[in-house]
Task: structure prediction
Amino acid sequence: MKKLYPLFLMLCALVGCKTDPTADSSAFVNIPDVIPDCILEIRYYSSFNFVGTRIDGYNQPTAILTRQAADSLKVVSDEMLGKGYRLKIYDAYRPQCAVDHFVRWAADLQDTLLKRCFYPDVDKSVLFEQEYIMEKSGHTRGSTVDLTLFDMLGGKDVDMGSGFDWFGIESHPDYGGNPQTGEYTGAEGITAEQFANRMLLREVMLSHGFKPLDSEWWHFTLVGEPFPDTYFTFPVVDLK
Result:
């Protein structure tokens, strides 16, 4: 599909039709092609996510980013490999139809299939108000990634004190400490070691050109992302 795209543009020019730039994946790459050592656990391709079913637009269990974001993430990966860790990717580029799926799910207050796993202490009626669910996502611009660290020596994920997509203050990077200084101040449910693990991931991501989100320890966006105003629509598929 990707290789045929230039021919498609030429044909459109000849017949005078307009192409949709949000459907163009030519500036994107498969993360595993750039970072062969990464681990993929694409939650939205599975049913183990806060919705409880595969999310629209996740047609294959792969992860995609803009070339610029993937190249920066490769530098992160190389540094962490030297320290005994691999990157585990939960999500990267997210098509707009997936965000629309989240919105529809959040509006259905009766659908609480996996509440106990992802939001046991949050009433579903406040998901929009508290911005757990929004109509637009930075992921859809293609330079945002959700990830954690995998300890190669221990053979398991690094303990970050909360799971991916946990709706609650426990997911905030400043829960239990000061991300600016790395100082652990203490909070119920998170240990000094867990907080330090979050800071390890945060420090390496920030040092290689990513910026954090103040409500999710796993979420980072490339500074100077190439498509700051474009919300893409093509599905998550292997781009080969």
User: Anything to note?
Assistant: The chain has six helices and ten strands. The beta strands are 28-30, 39-40, 64-66, 85-91, 144-151, 156-157, 177-178, 183-184, 210-213, 216-222. Residues 1-6, 8-17 have pLDDT under 50 and may be disordered. The two ends are 8 Å apart (CA to CA).
